[in-house]
Amino acid sequence: MRLAGTTAVVTGASRGIGRAIALRLAAAGAEVALWARDRQALDAVAAEIAKAGGKAAAFECDVSDPAAVERAAAHVRTAMPEVRTIVNNAGAVLRKATAEIDDAEWRRVMAINLDGTFHVTRAFLVQLTRTGGRIINIASRAGREGTALLAPYCAAKHAVVGFTRSLAEELRTAKVCVNAVCPGSVDTAMLREGLPGARPEMTPDDIARTVLFLATDAPDALTGTCVDVFG
Questions:
Q1: Residue 186 β-bridge partners
Q2: What is the side-by-side strand order in the sheet with 7-11?
């Protein structure tokens, strides 16, 4: 129960990787603030955690909306234990030729993947610097390499990696560790949307176990890095 008495905020927690991360962090003792846009799915994850003896609260929130993020963050700060762990997992993908992408489509992918990571992180920085917390950003192999027909997703995830590295240096003296996880092919709906026909190399729980290590056993010196989880 290494995270007992603390809160872990997990975005995109209603399914896939986010759900698996929430289950792992709850099993480690954290009270988990589950964030996503699908309230019904969030409630199902919260019930699953409660059935296993853990604690979780569901927050319907669009991380691309800074006002919505602040409202949800205010509830977490007042109703839950102090936040020690943030997992920025919410994401969106678009598979389309660049010449055919309109401004709204581009902005949506950037807003959820990149802006959301910034909004959520900013909302909890005061608590995290007080607790010596851990920020874990879910990037992607697409944040390390280029992939045809995924230009906005690749651009956003490359930016998440850059944000991770910069913030780690900024918070180094505060003893806040900031790292990114860059998964390859994971068996999720997003993979099937972004890369139809891809053969998943991993399950969501493979990524959740990596996140749990970064949230608990990873040394303080491990910060500003990208953990590549692909062969």
A1: 202
A2: 55-60, 31-36, 7-11, 83-88, 134-138, 177-183, 226-229
Q: Which residues are part of the catalytic machinery?
A: 153
The 3-state DSSP class for residue 225 equals: coil
Which tokens is 136 given?
């874990």
Contacts of 225 (CB under 8 A, 6+ apart): 168, 179, 180
The residue whose two tokens read 């040394």 is: 219
Which pLDDT score, from 0 to 100, does residue 190 have?
82
DSSP code per residue over 87-118: EE---------GGG--HHHHHHHHIIIIIHHH
pLDDT tier at 77, thresholds 50, 70, 90? very high
Mean pLDDT lowest for which of 10-19, 27-36, 184-193? 184-193
Which letter does DSSP use for residue 134 in this model? E
Which amino acid is it at 25? L
- Pairing type for strands 226-229 and 134-138 reads unpaired
The Cα–Cα gap between 140 and 153 comes to: 9
Distance CA 3, CA 158 (A): 30
